[in-house]
Amino acid sequence: EKGGYDYFMLKEIAEQPKAVSDTLLGRIDASGQLHLDEIRIPTGELREVNKIVIVACGTAYHAGMIAKYAIEHWTRIPCETELASEFRYRDPILDSRTLVVAISQSGETMDTLMALRHAREQGARVLAICNTNGSTIPRESDAVLYTHAGPEVAVASTKAFLTQLVACYLVALYLGQVRGTKWGDEIQSVIGQLARIGDDVDAVLETMEPVRELARGLADRDTVLFLGRHVGYPVALEGALKLKELAYMHAEGFAAGELKHGPIALIEDGVPVVVVVPSPRGRSVLHDKIVSNIQEVRARGALTIVIAEQGDESVVPYADHLIRVPATPTLLQPMVATVPLQVFACELATARGNEVDQPRNLAKSVTVE
Ligand code: F6R
Fold first, then answer.
1. Tens digits of per-residue pLDDT, 199-229?
2. End-to-end CA distance of the chain, in Å?
3. Burial state string for 258-282 with b = 16 or more CB within 10 A and e = fewer than 16
4. What residues line ligand 1, using a CB cutoff of 6 Å?
5. Helices (H), the chain
6. Which of the residues 76, 190, 209, 211 has the least number of beta carbons within 10 Å of its own beta carbon?
7. What is the set of active-site residues?
8. ipTM
9. What distance in Å separates the CA atoms of residue 97 and residue 279, rounded to the nearest whole number?
C-alpha cells in the first residue's frame, strides 16, 4: 500500500503534483474563470465581507499565514491568521461581515473546531478548507471547500499542505474576481499559472537527489535555522516544523528581517542556515535584502543552503548549497519552495534512524484541546 516507497511520507511527497491537480480540477475553466459555487455563499454576501480571519494549527496554520498575503493583496480585505488554540481566549472581534476560514486536513482538530464554534456563536460565517469528507469541521461550518489530496497517512503533513495552499489561493482569487479589484489582470494571469503549478512541483521533485545527499551529510548536527521573508517566512517556519517533528532536531524559522533584532547571535561556525529567496522579478527590494542576509550569516560562518529561483545568479557567490526551483509568481512560490524542505526533513529523519511515518509523541489527528 506504500506503492513501492519505503514510507508513506515519501509516497505522499511524490503524489503532490496529482494532489494539486485534483484540487484544481473543475474549479478553473478553459477561459480562466473560477468556479467555486460549491462553497454556496452567495456572491452578494461575499461582497459584504469586511474582514477575514483564518484559524488553523501546525502546518495548516502555515498555509493560513501564506493565505493572508494572497488575500490582502488580491482582495484588499483585511485578513489575520491566528493559531486556533489562541483564538477564542482573547475574545476576538467578530460579526456577521467577518468570514472565518478554518483550515484542517483531518477535519477533527479540536483546537480548530473550538475556534470555529466560537466564531459562529459570535455571528461570523465559517468556511472550512478540509481534506476529509464529512468530518466534524466541515459539518459544523457554513461552507466547505474540499482539498483533494487523498488520504494522508504519514503523521507529517505534506500533500495536504500543498492542497491547502491551492484552496487558499482559489479563495483569494475568487474573492478578488467576485469583488473586482485593481489587480484584475494580475489575477487572470495568476489563475493561468496556478492551473499549471502541478508541473512545477513535478519539476522540483525531479531534482531532489542533491537535497537528499545534503541532508545525509548533516545528520549529526544539532541545529538548523531557516530564514524567509514575505510568503517565504511561513515556508521557513514549515521547514523548521518538519525538521523538529521528523528529525527531532532543534530547528527554528525566522523572518529574515528579524535577524538583526536578535537571532543573528545564534550564528556560529558551521550552523546550517536554509534561506528561501523570493523571486528577483517580483518584489525585488525583498530579494536584494535577503541576499544581504545570506552574506551576513555566511560572513559569520554559517553553512548557507539557498533555495532560489531558476536563473537567479545573484545568490550563486554566497550559496554553499544551491537548490533551484522554477520561476513562479511571488505569491505562488511556497508551492515549489516547500517541497525541498519536506524532502530534506524526511531524509534527515531516515539518516538519524527515526520512524518517519510515526514520529515519537505525535498523533495524526489531535482531538483534544
Ligand atoms: C505537521 C502536522 C500538524 C498538523 C496540525 C493540524 O506536519 O501534520 O502540525 O498540520 O496538527 O492538523 P489538521 O490539518 O488535521 O487540523
1. 999 999 999 999 999 999 999 999 999 999 9
2. 32
3. ebeeebbebbeeebbbbbbbbbbeb
4. 57-60, 104-106, 109, 112, 156-157, 241, 245, 365-366
5. 8-14, 16-24, 43-48, 58-75, 84-87, 110-121, 136-139, 159-179, 184-195, 197-205, 209-217, 232-247, 284-299, 334-351
6. 209
7. 364
8. 0.98
9. 35
